[in-house]
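INFO batch 0412 | record 1 of 1 | parsing
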Amino acid sequence: MARRLLWASLALAPVAMLADWVFHVGKVPLFILAACALIPLAWLIGEATEHAGEHTGPRIGGLLNASFGNAPELIIALIAVADQLPDVVRGSMAGSVVSNILLVLGVAMAVGPEARLDRRSLLGQLLLVFIAVLVLLIPSIPGWSGDPNRHSLAVLSIGPSVVLLVLYLVVTIRSLRRQQPQESEGTGWSLSAAIVALGVATAATAAISEILVHSLTAFADAAGLSEFFISVVIVAIVGNAAEHGGAIVIARRGKMKLATEIAVSSSAQVALFVIPVVTLLSFLFAHPLTLAFRPIELATMGIAAAFVAFVIRDGRSRRWEGYLLIGVYAAMVVLFYAAGERGG
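INFO prediction complete | emitting tokens
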């Protein structure tokens, strides 16, 4: 039933395009429509990537997952860079890290059975997130005074970006070498069908992301919310829809090791892959991105990683712990709301 709804909701993408390009609908309904349209597109990208990986083997499949699984986040971020919305970019990426390891992991643990987890792997991924936060302090601290988007800070952000990306590549290559091929369940698509689906879904995601970003400010004004809150909560959740939905569905099926791995590794991917790639690609635009994260962004990412590490330290998943993680995320959402805009 859920899959049928996702397939049907793919129609939201052309509807959103027509609403913007032909009927010139207002910015507020456009933002809502675009946000809803991105969710099934993110699912389709994840689905097509998984099926393509069945034909290419685990190594290339892992590369496809890293490249296309994060496509919605990357596209949203780059369009926001082009629109000179650096706070939206940083907010959405910080929100992605926090929502994956608190909200998604929490819901997965709450709806799934109590089970043993891959403690070593999860703690390793959380350590990577914590290391990323420490590395991001290098360009962030100078940004707490003066203009956080000055060009000198953008240049300073290159080094930490390269360090994070190299660390990600080293860890990914090592894990792919250890990974064993998995048998397909027999419901896979052909390689050509998966590639076509990836291409179409990625192109549609680019178009819908542009609508989302261009209507974000108007929606924020109409809703009485800061752009920071919308980017760190709403945009972050929408951009990670594939990982969010996938982890929760897998948890309901009782596969807790896989579900928790998806949630935590998705956060590590954002911290070590998405953030540096967006930063380096931003130099193709007039105003490159600086990694001058706000104290609240760095603090919530670090606290989330440390808190989850404490919760799963015994290598077991319990439902009450899932509810606890959801509660901590809700508290952070309140903090995001109270923080307002940068310098506000």
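INFO post-check: The two ends are 45 Å apart (CA to CA).
INFO record closed
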